[in-house]
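Lab notebook, page 48
Experiment: co-folding of the full assembly
Goal: obtain a model of how the components sit together before planning crosslinking
Operator: M.T.
Materials (sequences as entered):
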Amino acid sequence: MVKIIFKKRKSVKQVEESTDLAPKFDENGLIPVVTTDHSSGEVLMQGYMNEEAFKKTIEIGEAIYYSRSRKTLWHKGKTSGLVQIIKEMRIDDDQDCVWLKVDVNGGASCHVGYRSCFYRSIPIGPQSDTDIILKFEEKEKVFDPKKVYGNTPNPTKL
Amino acid sequence: MVKIIFKKRKSVKQVEESTDLAPKFDENGLIPVVTTDHSSGEVLMQGYMNEEAFKKTIEIGEAIYYSRSRKTLWHKGKTSGLVQIIKEMRIDDDQDCVWLKVDVNGGASCHVGYRSCFYRSIPIGPQSDTDIILKFEEKEKVFDPKKVYGNTPNPTKL
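Observation: model returned without errors.
Model output:
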């Protein structure tokens, strides 16, 4: 297989207005990734890629992230079966963020069991109390995390 | 106005399964924000908020980010007129990412002049060349950045 080479970032014009792929990785070598459902447009999750994950994702057409908690490449769905098939991959103006439009086998993307990781909303507007009460927008889990992940440690960090 | 107080992060269960708003800010005091168009579902941009921007956004119902390049709060659209009116605000499972569904006055969100910042796609699959050629998915700019921003410095950093 041909090895993909990212372009060096030479000018704002090149980065914003050309067809060069010249992504910017942050001080930890990561680029943020927004993943949406290709059919519904719903945001499923937000993750990160390092350079290797970025190149592998392009080559195989399935989402590979970099797990910050496990400090390793993370081929999404390899444990749960909920692989993300990429229908389209986009990069933003200054090339420091990636957008994946995916189809998910099984329809769920969230380790808690919901379809989207964003299953709760925040009320907007002047508040009558100091405490914000989140609202569950998804009422039911799509799968039982215990059955799917077994004793795998929960990735959420406090 | 009542001062919003975020909850302390006490347990994985509280963060993932309760109605407490207990967001996690990174080592720079920031939380990533994904912004989509409320009608089309298109991802418009990805930015960051600090605690102050987060609370102000909730209170006024318009998107306020933290600009990493200018190191200041950034009420999106105050220069360009392209204010983002929030229709819905969501937080993800481990509360380290925010999703804004917005209506944009003028329909554009990208300082380069396009509707979305993600106006170019990356070809997927085994590559025949080391160089990736991006494809422009938006053919025409919605506005002329020179007319809108004048001599304001371009925020893109190399």
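Interpretation: Chain A is about 15% helix and 25% strand.
Next step: discuss with group before ordering constructs.
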